[in-house]
């Protein structure tokens, strides 16, 4: 288990907990538990994080609590997702992201503006237009 991966994952869930209000989630309530496991270890140590949606507000905490949706994902793939190096839908289709319960929560979570970064080499649309005008 990499300390850098753990630091990135903890920082991500801290950001979720501090995210505040998202108007697009005003009608969304539920819980989503992330089960993040280390695919390279024989003992399959698993970290559990709970994300709570409450009418537009988000919260995140550690713990193995009952949830409406359970997401199973290996640590390396999760780190790639939260750093913008991988795409969630692509990894879901390849069964690297497994969703049980109400998977719509996962897609609503993924689409929250500003929570997940774009690819590291991606251009901001304004920068792209400025370069195209030159």
TrEMBL record:
Q: Which residues form a coiled coil?
A: none
| InterPro entries listed in its UniProt record | SCP2_sterol-bd_dom, SCP2_sterol-bd_dom_sf
Listed Gene3D superfamilies:
SCP2 sterol-binding domain
- Designated name of the protein: SCP-2 sterol transfer family protein
Residue ranges of every copy of the SCP2 domain listed in the record: 20-87
């Amino acid at each position: 288990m990499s300390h850098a991966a753990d630091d990135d994952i903890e920082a991500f869930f801290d950001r979720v907990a501090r995210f505040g209000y998202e108007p697009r989630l005003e009608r969304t309530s539920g819980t989503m538990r992330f089960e993040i496991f280390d695919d390279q270890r024989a003992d399959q140590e698993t970290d559990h994080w709970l994300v709570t949606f409450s009418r537009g507000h988000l919260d995140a905490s550690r713990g193995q609590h009952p949830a409406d949706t359970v997401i199973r994902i290996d640590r390396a793939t999760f780190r790639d997702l939260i750093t913008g190096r991988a795409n969630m839908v692509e990894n879901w289709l390849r069964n690297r992201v497994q969703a049980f319960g109400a998977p719509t929560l996962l897609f609503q979570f993924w689409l929250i503006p500003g929570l997940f970064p774009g690819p590291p080499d991606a251009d901001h649309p304004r920068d792209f237009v400025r370069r195209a005008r030159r």
